[in-house]
Write a structure and sequence with these properties.
- By secondary structure, this protein is an alpha+beta fold.
- It has helices spanning 8-25, 85-88, 159-163, 166-169, and strands at residues 32-38, 41-46, 50-55, 59-60, 69-75, 78-84, 101-105, 113-117, 119-125, 130-132, 142-147, 153-157.
- The strands form 2 sheets. It has a 6-stranded mixed beta sheet with strand order 9-1-2-12-11-10. A 6-stranded mixed beta sheet has the order 3-7-8-6-5-4.
- The longest helix is centred in the first third of the chain and has 18 residues, at 8-25.
- 26% of the residues are buried.
Length: 173
C-alpha cells in the first residue's frame, strides 16, 4: 500500500495560517504552543508571543557584533534585529536552510526582534504532555520541560523573559 507523500510546504502554510488566525483574534489557546527545533533541542513557544513566522529573508550583516547576532532584516518596510537563537542559547550556530524560519516577536514586547530557528515542528498542546521535574539549574527563560506521548522532551521558552535579558540586548562585540 503506497503511503501518501507529506507536502511539507502545505503543512507549514497550515501552521502559519493557524498562527495568524490566533494572532488576529487576539486570543490564544492557553495550552497551544508552536513546536520549533533550536539546535538539537525541541522547544515550545506560546502562540501569542509571536506575531509572524517567515522564511529567512535577506539579511543585512552588521559589523562588530556578537557571533549570534545575524544582522537586520526588512519585513514589509520594518527593520527587525535577527538573532541566531541556537548561537545565543549556547548551541552550535545555526545555518539557514530551506527549513529554517524566523519568528517575529509580538509587538507588545516593544522590540523588533526576529529569532532564527532551525525548523518548525508544528502545533503542540500542553494538555497532551506531562510536566517534568528539572533538577539542573535552568535559565530564567526556560519555563518548564514536558514529555509528550512518544517520550520526546520539549522545553518551554518564555520570549518575554528572553527578550529582556541584558545579554540579549547587548549585540556589540
Amino acid at each position: 500500500m503506497a503511503r501518501k507523500k507529506l507536502n511539507l510546504q502545505a503543512y507549514q502554510q497550515d501552521i502559519l495560517a493557524r498562527l495568524k488566525s490566533v494572532s488576529e483574534s487576539g486570543r490564544a489557546l492557553s495550552s497551544s504552543r508552536l513546536g520549533v527545533r533550536i539546535g538539537a533541542i525541541d522547544w515550545l513557544v506560546a502562540l501569542d508571543d509571536i506575531s509572524e513566522v517567515l522564511p529567512v529573508p535577506n539579511i543585512m550583516r552588521v559589523p562588530l557584533t556578537r557571533s549570534w547576532f545575524m544582522g537586520m532584516v526588512n519585513v514589509r518596510g520594518n527593520l527587525y534585529a535577527l538573532t541566531d537563537l541556537a548561537g545565543f542559547l549556547g548551541y552550535p550556530s545555526a545555518v539557514a536552510t530551506s527549513e529554517s524560519r524566523v519568528l517575529l516577536a509580538h509587538g507588545r514586547f516593544g522590540i523588533n526582534a526576529g529569532l532564527l530557528v532551525d525548523r518548525l515542528i508544528g502545533l503542540r498542546n500542553l494538555e497532551d504532555m506531562q510536566a517534568q521535574q528539572v533538577v539542573e539549574e535552568k535559565p530564567a527563560w526556560q519555563l518548564q520541560r514536558y514529555t509528550d506521548g512518544s517520550n520526546k522532551n520539549w522545553d518551554e521558552l518564555d520570549l518575554e523573559i528572553l527578550l529582556t535579558q541584558k545579554d540579549f540586548m547587548q549585540v556589540a562585540a
